[in-house]
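re: ur question from yesterday

yeah so i grabbed the chain u mentioned. its 75 aa long if i counted rite. heres the sequnce exactly as i have it in my notes:
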Amino acid sequence: MVMEEITIDRARQIATKKGLKPGRVKGTAGVQFTKGRNNRLEVIDWTDFEKTMSKRKLAVYESGGWMKIMKKNRY
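ran it thru and got these structure tokens back, copy pasting raw so excuse formatting
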């Protein structure tokens, strides 16, 4: 399975289709996608999500509709 970096806009489209929202692990700078039912996560807006991703040098990668947040490729 090849994971390819996608834009935040593309991630937002996929997340919307799957009923996912951007979230932050409470008390940390960790971000992930959530359906909003996990007590350890707080739903954040897409602007905060994008800022956190940029600050932490993270990117969203996708393969076949499956998304993962990882360190940004340097190449």
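noticed a couple things. The chain has a mean pLDDT of 93. also Residues 4-71 form one domain.
anyway ttyl
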